[in-house]
Amino acid sequence: MFGEKEGARVITTFKDKSPIDQRSKRRVDNINILVSPHWEELSKENQDEFQRLIDTVQNDDYLVVNLYTAGELEENSRAVYKDRLSAKESHVFSPSFSSLYSKCSNALLLNAIKEKYTLVTDHAVPSILHQDEILIEVSAIGLNPIDWKAPAFNFGIPSLPWVFGRDLAGTVIKTSSSSSRLQNGDLVLVPSTDYRDIRKAAFQEYAVTTHYNAAKIPSTTSIHGGASIGVAYVAAVLALGVSFGLDFGLAQSVPGPDLRTILKAVDAEKIPEDIRSECLPSSEAGAERVQRGDWIAIWGASTTTGYIALQIAKLCGLKVICIADIARHGRRLHALGADILVDRHDTDRAVDIIRGVTGGQLRFAIDIVGRETATILEKALSQPNEGDNRPRSHLLGLTGSPKEKKAGIVYHTVPIKIFHESPQVGEGLVRWLEELLESEELIPPEVVIRDEGGLSGVNDALELLRSGEVSGKRIVVDLRKGDVKGTAAR
Known about the structure:
14 helices, Rossmann fold, disordered C terminus, single chain, globular, oxidoreductase, alpha/beta, 490 residues, six-stranded parallel beta sheet, 3 domains, Quinone Oxidoreductase, Chain A, domain 1, 29% helix, seven-stranded mixed beta sheet
């Protein structure tokens, strides 16, 4: 057997009281675990011995865990595993699909707040833990503002070191038996909304996702276009379909799902408590759903989320007011069907124009910029008084809402986690996205491709994003030319 230096000892079965799966928080009954050593440190003899063990259990319900690679498990979970390993006890996790990749891979790690990402070359390839998961070889990464804001301002960081990245595109290289929709070799785009699961992050050569969170990239869309669109699409569609109740069946050319109807059929206890009221609104809010012909205003329409929200809203018959830097982005927004273009620079004038065009009856608005602009946009909304029979207005702030709330206005946040928490919602969104891209009814944003250095070029690309020089476009890092081996990304 393997010595202490060379890796962990082998296979155990837990048949005691039902433990808790640390990742899903569900209780489980039977757990088998195969603990992987650090492959490159094994002698040839021990590699052969370990491979025989793998072959023995390959078709059974075993989980492969590499205890020698940071990132596979949360810190507290790693400690528990190591303690139990030394005591020769059993270990906790609920595997339903076994996988092992002995090779190491490249990844970007954030080691400390306010630091740049560091390239490591000995990161473990993520393991598949559940039957609905698939493994992706990442070819392109779409950058988002949160990728530099989270380290700079210390939010959205589960622990350190950590792997980040929300948008990726690549090739399926391993599927589970439950996924008939996706096969090995499929080119897919993945919006990675489950940021607490390090296996699903984009800044690594291989990433795990679920089959209901991956969309096939059709021949009409480039891999860079696919990498640019994921999380922005999810945010835009959830804002319109869940928060405002837009029925995507109104998109006559490419009918989509009615998310409110889907969510009504989901067990409320399976919807996380912090987004439950947003996903299952009161009957009053249900009666106030946005309808074909209604006005909607989007502040920050030149952002990727705004760009997609505009297209989806127009497909469903809404009238759209776009607030942006019109000199820079007006032509593009007009080409996508914006009904009214309002320049953002004179905010008082912008509010006057919106109220004038809508006769003071605007009821739906999305702000994608921040709390300050959300507060300005709030002034453009109809504000019925208490006891008034008029329906309420609805304001969604993607990155912040007004501090003081006003009667007659419902304030929303995007329930982003429902995308990965609910297979029904996730699959509804990715299947519709496939159809929208195939039919070219949804046009991805213009991209700026960074194709030098692979992952090692991400820090420089994020500096470009942070500078604001790239406006109205998405920066996509192409990984296919490889990384600078053995060096920190600068």
